[in-house]
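Encode chain A's predicted structure.
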Amino acid sequence: MKLKGAEIIWECLLREGVNLVFGYPGGAILPTYDAMTKYPQIHHVLTRHEQGATHMADGYARATGKVGVAIATSGPGATNMVTGIATAMMDSSPIVCITGQVASSYIGTDAFQETDISGVTLPITKHNYLVTDVEDLAYTIREAFHIARTGRPGPVLIDIPKDIQNAETEFVYPDEPIVLPGYRPASAATEADIEHALDLIHAARKPLILAGHGVVMSGAANELMAFVEKTQIPVALTLLGKGGMPEGHPMVLGMMGMHGEAYVNQAIQEADLLLAFGMRFDDRVTGNLATYAPHSRKIHVDIDPSEINKNVRVDLGIVGDLRTVLSQLTPRVHSKQHPEWMAQIRDWQDDSFKRDIVNRDAGGKLFAAHVIRDLWEYTGGNATVVTDVGQHQMWEAQYYPHKRPYTLITSGGLGTMGFGLPASIGAKLARPDEEVWAIVGDGGFQMTIAELATAVQEKAAVNIAIINNGYLGMVRQWQEFFYEERYNATPMFSPDFCKLAEAYGIPSRRVTSRDQIKDAVEAARAYNSGPFLIEFVVEKHDIVYPMVPAGADLHNMIRRPVAAPDMV
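Encoded structure for chain A:
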């Protein structure tokens, strides 16, 4: 059948299993929006900004493991997507962004709302396209989805000029397998690599697993559990690796890195073997590379060959799908206990517990750590939590243990303030039966606050927890530690968040003491007609402990004093 390019876009999306897209219309993408009226099977969410559309598509993708889709017009519509695309790229999130472009004959003339978005996004996409012939459109969309979801997932952008959307051609959906020269994502490890890995594992006395985002993305949670229970090797988690194993499991130590548990970092520095599973040795994880894990041999398993030896030289790099590689390793690895190693780790762990703020009397003050821990308790630890970026993000990672994959959604690599609210809307619309909480700071929340209207319009029952300390808290923390307490440009005025919620028709509570938390959380959980907002007014000068200063040795952490009278 003959179809216009605009209709071909929707036909292809249907065949890729898309039933939800996030976008914002404009002149160069109007043919596609006009054709959308013929495809009621696909629900379009009108966002309030194109950045919000990309974050919602990202939240959708991370909540489901499927490809999220965002649509925008040319020029500013497309460039507004850049932050969301970069966020998805850094965290390997599969999204496809479709942008309208000025008509082919106008490209290069500085036409109204023209921007070379393919050139702009070249470094921050897994791949991108400018479609110049309607005959190529269907195959391009199919190829884009294939690239976004296979191998190491990532964002793909398709830029489509207005005349291509209006052009007509015979539509035949390309069902044949996608074959791309040079693009052959590995799956299984070689026999030689498996043998080498087994030799290293069996010889180790102090082994440690570093579990990253790849555990979640490859669907390897069950395989990792089987490997750990057979080998009794303790597990440290990256921020994006949380949920890869239940954090209540006795072999799971907690988060590593800059704001990880001190005993986890101590274990890394003392280990004689690191098994890095689906993680990329980010600088927030390693600290000073020159002194990182000096006693250990290292095995690195990753789907992306470019990650092997990129930041940390390893003794064995295995390129493959983690789930497949673990399935190869586990049947052949020896069962083994490590009692002396675990006893050492437990000693370090006891010291950390003595310093932990949640184990002390708060003296009537409301600290963010208490808010997060109570939220975990009152939700039974079963919610999907979407965070913004800053101190609250690290407190969430420290005090909300996750049991399941895809239940912590946060911007790890790019550290995108403004991510939390729109990504939580995408996650909730993707999984309407899931309890979703957006934990945001007063700073990041205001960056994409306009998406409150989207949440109301879509009746997205996201519970929004604002941790309000009146500062750009993490920046203020760095100013306190490293800039002699010159708090320049970090004190933050905010609106009355409850009155703001009222203006949007959103019910709200303000919490100023710990005894008010339970009632507020229960009220939010009972309200399912749309978003619910709680403003937690917490201590202004609280610090995220412990902390590895940027570039410092991983074991040289700034730790909470054992007996700090003011608790901060």
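Residues 429 and 460 are 6 Å apart (CA to CA).
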